[in-house]
Amino acid sequence: MGFAEDVLYSYVERSLRRMFPEREGWEIKRRPRDNEMVPDYFVQKKRFGRTHRVLVEVALVPTITEDHIEPLAAYAGKMEKLLLPIEALILVVPEGANLSAVPEYIDVLPLDVLRVEGGDVIWTKRRTVGVTES
């Protein structure tokens, strides 16, 4: 993976950490770089003898298609067959992505540092509140 992709994934991990805080026992594991057969992230926590599992796929494209959804749903199906239930499926996308192909059972997490503009995914310029230029 290149530097730019590593930077993007640090923003993804920051967003996931907000949803799944370490202080609540959540573990966020990124998939190995050489394994395209599993989702990008596996999030879990164990509590009172029960394991809560969440699968996360990152699709940083302007339009989400079945090609982005099918691998995530298929992997969740495999986990269910192994009696390892999945509580949620999450798709990380840029803000403004076309989500018409995303089924209701998949949650969407918009990544606030990217947005779709004119059919392209671009970095979002962050604004600093309270700072004025002289």
Give structural notes:
- With 134 residues, the chain is an alpha/beta fold.
- The protein has a single domain, classed as Trna Endonuclease, Chain: A, domain 1, CATH 3.40.1350.
- The chain is 25% helix and 33% strand.
- The chain is built from 2 helices and 6 strands.
- The protein has a 6-stranded mixed β-sheet with strand order 1-2-3-4-5-6, covered by helices on one side.
- The chain is globular, with a radius of gyration of 16 Å.
- 20% of the residues are buried.
- The model has no long low-confidence stretch (mean pLDDT 86).
Short key terms for the protein model shown above:
Trna Endonuclease, Chain: A, domain 1; alpha/beta; 134 residues; 6-stranded mixed beta sheet
- Separation of the first and last Cα atoms: 41 Å
**Largest sheet, spatial ordering of strands:** 1-2-3-4-5-6
Shape: globular
Beta-strand percentage range: 25-35%
CATH architecture: 3-Layer(aba) Sandwich
Q: Quick check: average pLDDT?
A: 86
Query: What name is given to the CATH topology?
Result: Trna Endonuclease, Chain: A, domain 1
Could you say how many structural domains there are in total?
1
